[in-house]
Design brief:
The chain is an all-beta fold. The chain has one domain. 0% of the residues lie in helices and 36% in strands. The chain is built from no helices and four strands. It has strands at residues 2-7, 14-20, 23-24, 37-41.
Amino acid sequence: MATSSTSSTTTKKYVLYPYENGKWSKGAPSVSIGESFWIAKTEAANWVRSFTIGM
């Protein structure tokens, strides 16, 4: 099980996105450039993200 948490700009509270049984229960979270988030996992893993600015 893993949980992703992002900060809501309207409520100023974290929004939780549980990941269980191989899927996001509320849909996959979307993290913008510069937005804070954290992932709570039961096992360690690498997270890699690629993005392009100015194109």
